[in-house]
Amino acid sequence: MFGIIRPCRHRLTEQLHQSWTAHLCGLCLALRDDHGQLARTATNYDGLVVSVLVEAQSLTVGGGFLRSSASSGSGRRTAGPCPLRGMRTASVAHGEGARLAAAVSLALASAKVRDHVDDADGLYARRPVALAAGGVANRWGRQSRSGGSALGFDTGVLFDTLAQQPELERSAGPGSSVLLVTAPTEHATSLALEHTAVLAGRPGNRIPLAEIGRLFGRLAHLLDAVVDLTEDQAAGAWNPLIATGTSTAEAERLCRDAVHGIRLALRDVEFTDGALAHRLLAHETDAAVKRTFAHASAARAQRGSDHGGPGGPFGPAGPFGPIDTTPPRPLRRRNPLAGCAMWALLCCTCQACCREDYEDPCNGRRRQGPCSDMDCDCDCCDACEICECLECCDCGC
């Protein structure tokens, strides 16, 4: 699972956490039911926002159960036991929202895998792995198109938009605006979020949701660039911040502006029950920005102290700050089959989600389980059930 929105259960009320889990499991099961077991690996946290938005615009509450006000039998169903839920059953989202989220997630995963293959990143530099991954990317692309078409959404437009990325990357150079590079991602996410209004029967929401999608895509692209910055520098891989000479300080400014723009656009969206959508888009995006740049700042400070302190060549005041070109400690590579086996063990025992710190079986990098995040930085809603009232915050939503 990948994505920037990873809400800590301690920042959500019990009801909102159950709803978020229902959408996460619903996305995973929609991928399995419509596209096969392998497609479940395309599950990602950002894609489930699509499912959340469809439900938030189309559901009514009655008798203690969520029921759809739209057609297609959308709503909740009871899913069977799953190892990631401790072999417990659960109420999960299903219907058009989950299916659209699945189609969008496959499109994102297909583009991501194809990008790794084209760049020959890591294991993808090996021809057998690249061939297998390319085949998976092609199949996910076909499945995404068929899944989206059944919902009246042309995911082919997403692929056409994302296909512009390589040309934009080749043309970007020092002094270019990094927003030129993020434009395809912005447009693709804009189309996906706009279509949630179509499925929910809320045509008046299309414009503000398109704006939210555009800014969300910008945010996701920039945060991904910041997270990958050190590794890309070490590998000599392309990174939009390095290519355009954009500092991390400027990237942070753009990210914070995007979060503010999302909050403003949310004011114009008509929800039936927007508590979870509000929490994810207005607050978890802000938490993602804080988390990403706090980690980046700590890493720069550590590297600066390792190379002669803040005044050293790689410190904030050095010639290479704030973008650091110091290669990180070499990563250990594991046999692909052994790595997959260890990932399966981590996932089936919930360690990949719940452990505070664990080692990536493939490359030895330290990772943190998303459910173990104890850094609950909700600073405005603790006193009123964390945004269920939607009136306690200063974001204007």
Explain how this protein is built.
- The protein has 397 residues and is mainly alpha-helical.
- The chain is 56% helix and 7% strand.
- The chain contains 13 helices and six strands.
- Strands 1-2 form a two-stranded antiparallel ribbon.
- Helix 8 runs antiparallel to helix 10.
- The radius of gyration is 21 Å and the shape is globular.
- The two termini are 29 Å apart.
- 41% of the residues are buried.
- Residues 61-73, 307-329 and 372-392 have low confidence and may be disordered.
Could you say which structural class the secondary elements and strand pairing correspond to?
A: mainly alpha
Distance between the termini: 29 Å
**How many alpha or pi helices?**
13
Order of adjacent strands in the largest pleated sheet:
1-2
Q: How much helix, percentage-wise, in residues? A: 55-70%
Beta-strand content estimate: 5-15%
The major beta sheet can be summarized as:
2 strands, antiparallel
**Uncertain segments:** 61-73, 307-329, 372-392
The total of beta strands comes to 6
Radius of gyration: 21 Å
Average predicted confidence as pLDDT: 79
Shape: globular
Order of SSEs: HHEEEEHHHHHHHHHHHEE
Protein name: DUF5685 family protein
Pfam families: DUF5685 (PF18937)
Organism: Streptacidiphilus alkalitolerans
Outline of this structure?
This is DUF5685 family protein. By secondary structure, the chain is mainly alpha-helical. 56% of the residues lie in helices and 7% in strands.
